[in-house]
UniProtKB/TrEMBL annotation:
Keyword ATP-binding: yes
Signal sequence bounds: none
Any Pfam family the entry gives: ABC_tran
Alphabetical list of CDD domains matching this protein: ABC_BcrA_bacitracin_resist (cd03268)
UniProt source species: Actinophytocola oryzae
Span of domain ABC transporter: 2-227
Domain of life: Bacteria
Keyword ATP-binding: yes
Similarity remark: Belongs to the ABC transporter superfamily.
Keywords: ATP-binding, Nucleotide-binding, Transport
Molecular functions (GO terms): ATP binding; ATP hydrolysis activity
The name this protein goes by in its record: ABC-2 type transport system ATP-binding protein
Length: 314
C-alpha cells in the first residue's frame, strides 16, 4: 500500500504538489489522473525517494522508500523508458541492473519472457521502438518481483497495439495482488485501465474514488429510449415530470428511473426498441470536477474540453 499524507513540494515559486493525502491499495490498478503539469511526476519521484517533500510524507507499507531494506524487491518503477544505455542489449541492461541491485541473474530471462522481449534480448536497446523500450522499462521494474509498481505515463506515444498490451499487462499485475499506480493525462485511457482513481489538478487532490463513482458523481445519468411510437412515449414521460430531449430517432430522458420508463411504456402498450442507461464520459466528469484546477483551458469556449487533456503528446 502507498500512503501519502499532506504531501507537498515547492520549486521556488511553484507549488508543484499541494497537501496531497491519498492511499493506493493492492490488487487494483489505480490511475493517477491530472492534466500536464498537475504534479504527477513530482509525486511519483517523492514516492521513490528521488525528490524530498517540502511538507508531509509518503510511505510504502508504512516505511519511507529510503528505509526499505531492498527497495527493488518492494517497489518497481517505470519513470522514463529511454533511460537505458543505447549500445547495451536489453539483456545486458537488465543483467547490469540485476547485478547492481543484488538480484538473481536468472530473473533477467524471466522478466524478458514476461514482457515478450526474449527474441530481441540481444539487440541494442538504442534501436528499440518506443513500445519495445516501454516493455524493457517494465521488465526492469519487475526484476525484483515487487509488490508495488509505479508507471509514469506508460502509454504516451504508443500505437493502439502497444496501449492494449500495457493495459492488459497492468490488469494482470493487479490480478496477481500487486499494487499498481499508473499516471496518465489520458482520461479515456484511464477509464479503461484503472478501477480506482486519484485525481489531481494544480498539485491538489480533486478526488479519490472508483472510476465508476468519479463519473457518476460528476455527470448526469440519462436513459436512451427508442420506439416506433416515440411521440406517445414522449408525452407520457413528460407527464411524469421528467425531462425529455429528442435525439434523432430516440429520446434521452433525465430525471426518471430506467425501470419506471419501462413500466410506463408497458402500461401504455408502447413497444420499445431500446432502453439503455447512458453514462457521462470520464472527460466530462473530469472537466466538471476540476473546474479551474485545469491549467490549460481552451481559449474559445467555456465548455470545450481542453485539447491538452485529450491528446497523447506532451
Ligand atoms: N525540478 C523542477 N524544478 C522546477 N519546477 C518543476 C520541477 N519539476 C516539476 N516542476 C514544476 O512542477 C509542476 C508539476 O510538474 P510535474 O512534472 O510533476 O507534473 P505532471 O503532472 O507530471 O505533468 P506532465 O504530465 O506534464 O509531466 C509543473 O509546474 C512543473 O513545471
Amino acid at each position: 500500500m502507498i500512503e501519502a499524507v499532506g504531501l507537498s513540494k515547492r520549486y521556488g515559486k511553484t507549488l508543484a504538489v499541494d497537501n496531497l493525502t491519498f492511499t493506493v491499495q493492492p490488487g487494483k490498478v489505480t490511475g493517477f489522473l491530472g492534466p500536464n503539469g498537475a504534479g504527477k511526476s513530482t509525486t511519483m519521484r517523492m514516492i521513490l525517494g528521488l525528490d524530498s517533500p517540502s511538507g508531509g510524507h509518503v510511505d510504502i507499507d508504512g516505511q519511507r522508500y529510503r528505509q526499505l531494506h531492498q527497495p527493488l524487491r518492494k517497489v518497481g518503477a517505470l519513470l522514463d523508458a529511454k533511460w537505458v544505455h543505447p549500445n547495451r542489449s536489453a539483456r545486458a541492461h537488465l543483467r547490469w541492473l540485476a547485478k547492481s541491485n543484488k538480484l538473481p541473474a536468472k530473473r533477467v530471462d524471466e522478466v524478458l519472457d514476461l514482457v515478450g522481449l526474449t527474441d530481441v534480448a540481444n539487440r541494442r536497446a538504442g534501436g528499440f521502438s518506443l513500445g519495445m523500450s516501454q516493455r524493457l522499462g517494465i521488465a526492469a521494474a519487475l526484476l525484483g518481483d515487487p509488490e508495488i509498481l509505479l508507471f509514469d505515463e506508460p502509454v504516451n506515444g504508443l500505437d493502439p497495439e502497444g496501449i492494449l498490451w500495457i493495459r492488459r499487462f497492468m490488469h494482470r499485475l493487479a490480478d496477481e495482488g500487486r499494487t499498481v499506480f499508473v499516471s496518465s493525462h489520458l482520461l479515456s485511457e484511464m477509464a479503461l485501465t484503472a478501477s480506482e482513481l486519484v485525481v489531481i489538478g494544480r498539485g491538489r487532490l480533486i478526488a479519490q474514488c472508483s472510476t465508476e463513482e468519479f463519473v457518476a458523481q460528476a455527470t448526469e445519468s440519462t436513459v436512451r429510449v427508442r420506439s416506433p411510437q416515440l411521440a406517445l412515449l414522449r408525452s407520457a414521460i413528460g407527464q411524469q415530470g421528467a425531462t425529455v430531449r429528442d435525439e434523432g430517432d430516440s429520446l434521452v430522458v433525465s430525471g426518471m428511473d430506467i425501470a419506471d420508463i419501462g413500466e410506463l411504456a408497458a402500461a401504455k402498450g408502447v413497444p420499445l426498441h431500446e432502453l439503455s442507461p447512458q453514462r457521462g464520459s470520464l472527460e466530462e466528469a473530469f472537466i466538471q470536477l476540476t473546474g479551474d484546477s485545469v491549467e490549460y483551458h481552451a481559449a474559445s469556449s467555456d465548455n470545450a474540453v481542453p485539447a491538452d487533456l485529450l491528446t497523447a503528446g506532451k
